[in-house]
Write a structure and sequence with these properties.
Layout: H1 3-8, H2 17-23, H3 40-47, E1 66-67, E2 73-77, H4 82-87, H5 94-105, E3 114-118, H6 132-149, E4 153-157, H7 159-166, H8 172-175, E5 180-182, E6 185-190, H9 193-198, H10 207-228
This protein binds uracil (URA).
The site of uracil has 12 residues, from helix 5.
Length: 229
């Protein structure tokens, strides 16, 4: 083998796909091609050893997801908070309890009908909004989760989730409740439950009232899709 050939063995392009896969949790520059993970536990294992961004330094647990692994509906939030970091489960704090109630109000069961996750799998210190770099580093895991669960409906909880995934910077009040196509899927931005906790009014036109309209529209679409499959 010539010197040239031998040296070229050290180039990234000569790493075989298994070596590349091992490197995924080490650097955001390593791509996560569709089909990398055969299952959610396999993906979770990488998330729990991941340092693609600085949030890996401060997490207690990576927060991967909960709910049905083949759910028709996926809810995508922003990033874990303290309760989620401690338990390793998304939306289990006050906001999560409200989300459960909202879903239960139209008889959607998180064990059966919904898979819940976030763009970022690790908690940003002090619950700050994740940076663009942190979202970009983590998004490929979410894309794999979407591929594995294959939901027919995706709900973006809050403006950060909408902006992080679709690039749409409009305020959530403008776009909530509107069906949109993203990634070839039917999606709807909804208020983040934390926002509803800060806006308790139930009057006609209030955020809580609007959420009630939106979740009924989601339920109607869910029934329509279920009938057609
Ligand atoms: N807020 C989020 O966006 N996600 C969680 O998991 C908890 C709170």
């Amino acid at each position: 083998m010539s010197n040239e050939q031998q040296l070229s063995l050290f180039e990234d392009s000569n790493l075989n796909s298994n070596d590349q896969k091992e490197l995924i949790p080490t650097d955001a520059k390593i791509p996560i091609p569709p089909g990398t993970y055969a299952s959610m536990p396999e993906l979770a294992q990488h998330c729990n050893q991941c340092h693609r961004c600085g949030l890996g330094e401060t997490r207690t647990h990576a927060v991967v997801g909960r709910g049905h692994l083949k759910a028709l509906i996926m809810v995508v939030g922003e990033a874990p908070g303290q309760n989620e970091d401690e338990t390793g489960l998304p939306f289990v704090g006050k906001a999560g309890q409200l989300l459960e109630k909202i879903l239960a109000s139209v008889k959607l069961d998180t064990e059966k009908d919904v898979f819940i996750c976030n763009i970022n799998k690790c908690r940003p210190p002090g619950n700050r909004v994740p940076t663009t770099e942190e979202m970009e580093a983590c998004k490929p895991y979410l894309f794999e989760q979407i591929r594995l669960v294959d939901p027919k409906i995706i709900l973006f909880a809050g403006a950060t989730a909408v902006k992080g995934l679709t690039g749409d910077k409009r305020g959530i009040s403008k776009i909530r409740g509107q069906w949109m196509e993203w990634d070839g899927r039917l999606c709807m931005p909804i208020f983040h439950p934390s926002y509803l906790l800060r806006n308790q009014s139930r009057e006609v036109g209030s955020p809580k009232w609007l959420m009630w309209q939106d979740i009924q529209a989601v339920r109607a679409k869910f029934d329509e899709i279920r009938k057609s499959i």
